[in-house]
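Exercise 7.
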Amino acid sequence: MERINWSSLNAQERGNALSRPVMDTGAMEATVAGIIARIRDQGDEALRDLTRELDGCLVEDPLVPEVMISEAGARLSADLREAIAEAAGRIESFHEAGRPSDIRVETAPGLVCEARYVPISSVGLYIPGGSAPLISTVLMLAIPARLAGCPQVILCSPPDHNGEIDPAILYAARFCGVRHIYRMGGAQAIAAMAYGTERVPACRKLFGPGNAWVTEAKRQAAADPAGAAQDMPAGPSEVMIIANGSADPRAVCYDLLSQAEHGPDSQSIVVSDSADLLNDIAEMLPELTRALPRASVLEQSLEHARLIRVDDMTQALAISEDYAPEHLILNGTAAESLAGRITTAGSIFLGPFTPESLGDYSSGTNHVLPTYGHAHAFSGLSMVDFQRRMTVQQASEQGLSAAAGATMALAEAEGLDAHRMAVACRLETAG
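Solution. The predicted structure, written as tokens, is:
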């Protein structure tokens, strides 16, 4: 890991120290556009061909048979089924508590304005598969979708070489109330959900993490008026750990590695005012890395890692606010008081007993979070993302009279005379 003394850097060097792995989608942009075009033009035929070409398996019907879903639980251990139920309960409790409320306000006598929250009619959930099937992501997406009341929820995940989806994903999806699960992955799955095929219904909005191909396909579909909106812009997973000398270096190492093992482009940064802690981490990390099953991935992602020495916690917090991490861990004394000064992070983890892993799986918060600096403007996923806020207004004759003057004056100032006349003509006929 690169060692950095923050106070010795100039402004440009500080910017370089917080630079993220470059997301170069230029090379794949045309390929993804071609995949989307094939799905739009050829539907299920293209989906079948692309699944064979890219996933190495033949899937005639992408819809997972009901019998395969109903039997999935029997293939799991009782402990895993219990863990899914326990985590789902906490996630549901937290998200239900955040349910938005409709409002109704009389802004002037006889003029009533309302805001109503209505579910998005059709949503598509993407669950990565491969070497690490993300069971937890099923819970993070399907539970708020169900609570929001979305009438149509479909879920897709890449098939293995036998054309099957991991049984834990099937079980978790059905546990959360998802009725339609599809065997498809990559950019072709995003295209199928965005535009629809003969067998796959089109969705209004797409959710879920994925690799660079999935991310690019979601971006292109969201930019197309005929496509589907996306949950949020995405980038590689990341964590920033701010720790003082009281932190356990072994725990910090595992927090760092738990994000680094997501993929070779993940980034982990430790910021501390303790040289001893940073030295301990640097000494301990190689051995812990070699002992983990995903050591080869870690070796690549740790090339993007940093150990940053600061003068004090005020300087550390300033670095975090500039970086806007997806995950921010505050480990050590005074963590709670430091957290009150943070305004830009996807999710914050406080104190020595709160690993980021809790948020990934079972604390109750959502692990679909803004990455790549997007925490400056975006929030983590919640029930609200599966709903639309729709406003309603109604004026009586009295209400129109109350607001007419300001409305007509503003319309006239903007040179939009039809707007002014739409009010004036009603005043003329009012009793």
